[in-house]
Amino acid sequence: MSTIKVAINGYGNLGRGVEKAIAHAKDMELVAVFTRRDPESVTTQGAPVVSLDDVDAWADKVDVVVNCGGSATDLHVQTPIIAKKFNVVDSFDTHAKIPEHFEEVNKAAEGGSNLALISGGWDPGFFSLLRVYGAAFLPESDVYTFWGPGLSQGHSDAVRRIEGVKKGVQYTIPVEEARQRILGGEHAELTVREKHERVVYLVAEDGADKDKIRDEIVNMPNYFDEYNTTVNFISDAEFDAEHTGMPHGGDVIRLGKTSEGVQHVIHFNLKLDSNPEFTGSVLVACARAVVRMNAEGAQGAITLFDVPPAKLHPATPAELRAHML
Ligand SMILES: NC(=O)C1=CN([C@@H]2O[C@H](COP(=O)(O)OP(=O)(O)OC[C@H]3O[C@@H](n4cnc5c(N)ncnc54)[C@H](OP(=O)(O)O)[C@@H]3O)[C@@H](O)[C@H]2O)C=CC1
Ligand SMILES: N[C@@H](C[C@H]1CC(C(=O)O)=NO1)C(=O)O
């Protein structure tokens, strides 16, 4: 297969993670980075920076666009627009709104004979696959997902979109006592609040209303309103010194039985030095699959549930059978 020509739309943490992943992919080339900002203000590792306003001129130069905008306010607008003209992948992670996003993107992609994979990444994404494989292979079971301790890019992005916030990050902290109960085999019924806590560190703009910012965060639907959330206002210097790393990870734990008294535990653990670099690597594999599947006639919206695993890997099916089966 010829080299896959990729464009990145949105150059933030995730955009830089995708850029690194493409640099390691022998079957791919990064041909452009699209941005809403003045292209002169954005510096990449070499790829040309193009205003998003000029994206249509690239329709015959790009095989797939990776949308790296924020889920809170960007992707539900950008992915349907891009899907009309390009194959596209995004990491949309507002779980409650995934069905609505899927329908919007599907209409746009079908109209353009393109293929769009939404909600790539690790959760939703890789963890979603683990949850569905476990449910299929162990139907009489309960599944528990724990994230962290680490930095959620989705929640950090949501915090940064609030008026008066200059810089912000959000750390997700699993309730370790709950995690240990599950790892010990207890089929506990846990509320959202009993599984995780959320801790925010932010730098407020001069003169910003901190009480208003805190209230907007702790009451934010789909992100914070169901959790115990702590909001810390800190200085620029402390933020730059303490809060620039983006480690994360988590566990998918499934407890089930195949007959009375015959119990099984499926436990998958993920430890990430860099959330954006790992997520970028997953999205690049998704981009590979989308190009291959569209070339075979697939159109509309899909998720990772719809992707045959062999489409994600650069090797041929015969090589995979010989080396990975
Ligand atoms: N499904 C999953 O497992 C995961 C999903 N994600 C998703 O990835 C999304 C993006 O996260 P992340 O990359 O950390 O967010 P960022 O805030 O770093 O970037 C989001 C967008 O903001 C713009 N931007 C970036 N830097 C600046 C700046 N200095 N000034 C102005 N605008 C800027 C960019 O768009 P532009 O270039 O157009 O200005 C960019 O696409 C998250 O919202 C989350 O939903 C992340 C990790 C895992
Ligand atoms: N989508 C998440 C990836 C994982 C992490 C997470 C959380 O900490 O709440 N939920 O899902 C992210 O943006 O980092």
List the helices and strands and how they pair.
Layout: E1 4-9, H1 13-23, E2 28-35, E3 49-51, E4 64-67, H2 75-83, E5 88-89, H3 98-111, E6 115-117, H4 126-137, E7 141-147, E8 150-151, H5 153-160, E9 165-174, H6 176-183, H7 192-195, E10 196-204, H8 210-218, E11 228-233, H9 236-242, E12 248-259, E13 262-272, H10 275-295, E14 300-302, H11 317-323
Parallel strand pairs: 1-2, 1-4, 2-3, 4-5, 5-6, 6-14, 10-11
Antiparallel strand pairs: 7-12, 8-9, 9-10, 12-13
Helix pairs in contact: 1-10, 2-3
The structure holds NADPH dihydro-nicotinamide-adenine-dinucleotide phosphate and ligand DA3.
Concise structural overview:
The protein is α/β, with parallel strands linked by helices and 325 residues long. The chain has eleven helices and 14 strands.
